[in-house]
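DM from R.C. (forwarded with permission)

"hey, sorry to bug you on a friday — could you get me a structure for this? deadline for the figure draft is monday and I only need the backbone to look sensible"
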Amino acid sequence: MSKTKKEEDRERQQTAESETIGSYLRRLRSEKGLSVEEVSSSTRISAANVRAIEGQEFDKLPADSFTRGQLNIYADFLGIDSAYLVSQFMKERDEKSMAAGRRGRPRQAQKVLAPKTMAEPSRISSAAVAGFLLLLIVVLFTAFCLYTSWSPFSFLRKETAIIGVFPGNRAAPPQQVQAGREKRSATPVTAPKKSPATAPKNQNEAPPAGATTKIPTQRYSLTVHFSKNTGVTITRNGGAPLSMFFKSGTKQTWKAGKSLKLVFARPGSATLLLNGKALAFPASRNGRPTLLIPEDLPSHQ
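My reply, with the result:
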């Protein structure tokens, strides 16, 4: 009757107890007709380590964890119990060290690390993660704009009024500027009253009783209905020029007592009403439509 695998392992173990682990491994290798080089090629154990294991040359072997791993591989290759073989080999090494009067290396219960656990996990910096997330957001936003045909720049241009179109000028919104000017122009100007204590001693120099100060009248009231987005530079009564920007569909009114000058950025961008009457859009002067009041009025010669 054929022997079972357990019986064969038991016989091999009894045989191994009567000889060293190294010689036992050498004998099994020889019985299988294998050379050291063939074992080294199949197990990836160097030929020098195979000879050191079989020759019990402990000083030529690597650290304990690597030695245990190589013994496990060699035992599995020969088809024998690796646990008993490893423990017996390490025991023989310690006994030989003690017999030679040297202190044996401490035996540590170390597990043979698998290649995956021995490799250090890669680390990704937080800056790289943040950069990747930012790139992902930009890509998704771009894909959304392309899919919906939506342009954020056009949206901002339509919803936000650009103040100070011409370089070097920063002005308040036209509605606020005009409201403030109308409020100031509507306030009557009266001569300051003089108290008796401060009255002039020379009665001939005093103003006549009942005298009033004239309020300057606004001769020109110009209303502009904008049909296109355009910039305008306004000069009233020879004062400092003021640059503004108006969107299509808006309306603005300016009043002046002496003169008005409007320089438009675009031709044909508005319809004009002067004192309630239609006024033709001005012709170009120096490359831009320019309206001069009263010079451009039909009655002004």
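R.C.: lifesaver. Strands lie at 220-226, 230-236, 242-246, 251-256, 260-264, 270-274, 277-279, 284-285, 288-293.
me: no worries. Confidence is low (pLDDT under 50) at residues 112-120, 163-167, 196-201.
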